[in-house]
Design goal:
The structure is a single chain. With 326 residues, this protein is of the alpha/beta class. The protein has 13 helices and eleven strands. The strands form two sheets. An eight-stranded parallel β-barrel has the order 1-2-3-4-7-8-9-11, surrounded by eight helices. Helix 3 packs across helix 5. The longest helix is centred in the middle third of the chain and has 19 residues. The radius of gyration is 19 Å and the shape is globular. GO terms for molecular function: oxidoreductase activity. Pfam families: Bac_luciferase (PF00296). Its EC number is 1.-.-.-. Keywords: Oxidoreductase.
């Protein structure tokens, strides 16, 4: 079991994200995972720095901890050739510590460049498949061209390639996206504790690691933690269909107006109770995931990191599917 720390680019500015990554390495986390957004989910989150710049700075400030995008959409806001180049460079400057997490994207971030965001999930997944083929092609070296249904590449070459290409973890929420992860990725990425996601991935031939974000909010008391999550992270309760379709933070504000504290408590581990955190994490372990990302929506990141070191690190690493909670 490997444990990661979520760097929320929507909730903190770039300097603070770099500081948290350094603290996460000191605390013993195996990797940091950073979202790649143009907008925050809600305006009151107040941030949205450029992920690739921040990860490059983190690579320079750390020595051991791995860096993961969670996740990048390489089809609309970015062309896959740019992501192939960015990922190759980050792998080099981090001495091989980078994992490229990719997905089919959200309208929230992709519509901003004016190219539209396909309404059909099928089309978005076709585009993701083509993007992954382009990235793999460029990582194989030499000048390359590609003519797809949605994406093209013309006479492009990446000159600075790492000795080994970065691992690619593909976000999935159902059978078709899990198949893409198995066929064109090296691992799986998910935000839901559904065993069928991992099962679809394995049935399609996927053998790599499974990354999953575990929702939590640390504070000295449960109410304060739940209120912090309600204020900034209630969008997480809307489900992937809503999260991928709404165009702007104001739409998420409206869509989550009726979310209550008790709703947060059903999904998030909140407050100082160690057993609740382990209970929520165990759902993901039992579903088959072996890379757990601690996604803290609480108001005190340093307090959470200290709590993780004292209370969670050892029992989380001992977790196994089906076994009793440590």
């Amino acid at each position: 079991m490997e444990i990661g720390y979520k760097l929320a680019s929507e909730a903190f500015g770039p300097g603070e994200l770099i500081r948290q990554a350094v603290a996460a390495e000191a605390a013993g986390f195996d990797f940091v995972e950073m979202s790649d957004h143009f907008h925050p989910w809600l305006d009151n989150q107040g941030h949205s720095s450029f992920t690739w710049t921040v990860l490059g700075a983190i690579a320079a400030r750390t020595e051991r901890i791995r860096l993961v995008t969670g996740v990048t959409c390489p089809t609309i806001r970015y062309h896959p050739a740019i992501i192939a180049q960015a990922a190759a460079t980050l792998a080099l400057v981090s001495s091989g510590r980078f994992v490229l997490g990719v997905g089919s994207g959200e309208r929230l971030n992709e519509h901003v460049v004016g190219r539209g965001f396909p309404d059909a999930v099928r089309v978005r997944q076709e585009m993701l498949r083509e993007a992954l083929e382009i990235i793999r092609l460029l990582w194989s070296g030499g000048y390359r061209s590609y003519e797809g249904k949605h994406l093209r590449l013309e006479d492009a070459r990446i000159f600075d390639l790492p000795p080994e290409p970065p691992l690619i973890a593909v976000a999935a929420s159902g059978r078709s996206s899990a198949r893409i992860a198995a066929e064109l990725g090296d691992g799986l990425f998910a935000t839901e504790q559904k065993p069928e996601i991992v099962r679809h991935y394995r049935d399609a031939g996927g053998t790599g690691p499974g990354y999953a974000e575990v929702p939590m909010a640390w504070a000295a008391d449960e109410h304060s933690a739940a209120q912090a999550a309600l204020e900034t992270s209630r969008w997480a309760l809307t489900g992937w269909k809503v999260m991928s379709e709404l165009p702007n933070p104001v739409n998420f504000e409206a869509a989550t107006a009726t979310v209550r504290e008790e709703d947060i408590l059903t999904k998030f581990a909140c407050g100082p109770d160690r057993n609740r955190y382990l209970q929520v994490a165990k759902q993901f372990v039992d579903a088959g995931f072996d890379r757990l990302v601690m996604q803290n929506a609480g108001p005190d990141p340093d307090g959470f990191i200290d709590f993780y070191q004292r209370e969670l690190d050892e029992p989380l690493r001992r977790m196994a599917p089906g076994a009793a909670t440590p």
